[in-house]
């Protein structure tokens, strides 16, 4: 499966496309950052982000989109812009009928590094290793977007196996 | 001028269209609410809100859009959805190149009632009086959307007069 990961932000919105399945090496398809100037009004910045996400959906045709889940308790000054960028990303994916999953930063850190409290450097290093890259993607928003896509494939795969096992168990019960 | 006011929200997004200019009676063009079910996923709710706002922009062709400014300090559980609905409203208007203004709840209350701490009932009563309606628009989100549109016309008009006075003063200085 091919997943577009999005680390939403108004100044820097990281995007990363990863392809693969659980149990096999994953591969990098694309990694980039949509940047918007703080000189622009917020609505214009959101329109630029929308256009950037649409372009990536057109170019890479992902099977699913994974977006970082934003919490209201993150009381930094940028939280509203981040929430709005995430909302725009959701709308872009939902308009196309693509499956959307929201993963928390802790879930992503735990998935790629085994530690829900890993720092940016550790996440970047693990993304580099998992995708067999020569250098860590910069800025951190780009690496985080790839980590989201990796998390989605691995969690999705695990969930698919659980679903299959439950379906098989239900099937066995049905045949008794 | 014709203004679309939007009181953003995920469950109820109020919209109101008001037409008029400062110093003359304003008139109601439309008032309604876009509702989305909490049974739906957030991305699908945002797509429904986008479609609703697009329909109102198509139907009423406003000259400007006024949206309630959301603050991160409003630490209620619905704040993220509200911020995202506001973001979607901004994108809809900005894509069309429409002027967008954000007004705080205090600014709106002060503009329509003269009291920045007016309650919902007072705002509803003033909207009803200003637009010479027979009944107060319900729910409060609908009345708030109209109050936003009224505020925009009144503040815009005042700003236009200030700009004109400054331009005239500059012109007089220029002719000395």
Automatic annotation (TrEMBL), chains A, B:
Gene field: ruvC
Coiled-coil zones: none
Cofactor(s) the protein requires to work: Mg(2+)
Cofactor note: Binds 2 Mg(2+) ion per subunit.
Annotated source species: Nocardioides thalensis
Entry keyword set: Cytoplasm, DNA damage, DNA recombination, DNA repair, DNA-binding, Endonuclease, Hydrolase, Magnesium, Metal-binding, Nuclease
Subcellular location, record wording: Cytoplasm
Gene3D superfamilies assigned to the protein according to its UniProt record, in alphabetical order: Ribonuclease H-like superfamily/Ribonuclease H
Residues annotated as the enzyme's active site: 7, 68, 141
HAMAP family on file: RuvC
Protein name as annotated: Crossover junction endodeoxyribonuclease RuvC
Binding site for Mg(2+) 1: 7, 141
A GO cellular component entry from the record: Holliday junction resolvase complex
Membership in a protein family: Belongs to the RuvC family.
Binding site for Mg(2+) 2: 68
Entry function: The RuvA-RuvB-RuvC complex processes Holliday junction (HJ) DNA during genetic recombination and DNA repair. Endonuclease that resolves HJ intermediates. Cleaves cruciform DNA by making single-stranded nicks across the HJ at symmetrical positions within the homologous arms, yielding a 5'-phosphate and a 3'-hydroxyl group; requires a central core of homology in the junction. The consensus cleavage sequence is 5'-(A/T)TT(C/G)-3'. Cleavage occurs on the 3'-side of the TT dinucleotide at the point of strand exchange.
Enzyme class at the top of the EC tree: hydrolase
EC numbers on record: 3.1.21.10
InterPro entries: RNaseH-like_sf, RNaseH_sf, X-over_junc_endoDNase_Mg_BS, X-over_junc_endoDNase_RuvC
């Amino acid at each position: 499966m091919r997943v577009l990961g999005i680390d939403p932000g108004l100044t820097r919105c990281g995007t990363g496309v990863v392809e693969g399945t659980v149990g096999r090496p994953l591969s990098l398809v694309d990694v980039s950052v949509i940047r918007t100037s703080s000189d622009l009004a917020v609505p214009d910045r959101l329109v630029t982000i929308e256009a950037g996400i649409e372009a990536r959906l057109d170019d890479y045709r992902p099977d699913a989109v994974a977006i970082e889940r934003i919490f209201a308790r993150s009381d930094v000054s940028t939280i509203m812009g981040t929430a709005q960028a995430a909302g725009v990303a959701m709308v872009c994916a939902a308009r196309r009928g693509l499956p959307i999953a929201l993963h928390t930063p802790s879930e992503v850190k735990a998935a790629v590094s085994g530690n829900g409290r890993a720092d940016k450097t550790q996440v970047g290093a693990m993304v580099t290793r998992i995708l067999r890259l020569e250098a860590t993607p910069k800025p951190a928003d780009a690496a985080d977007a790839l980590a989201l896509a990796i998390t989605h494939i691995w969690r999705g795969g695990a969930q698919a196996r659980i679903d299959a096992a439950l379906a098989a168990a239900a099937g066995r019960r049905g045949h008794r």
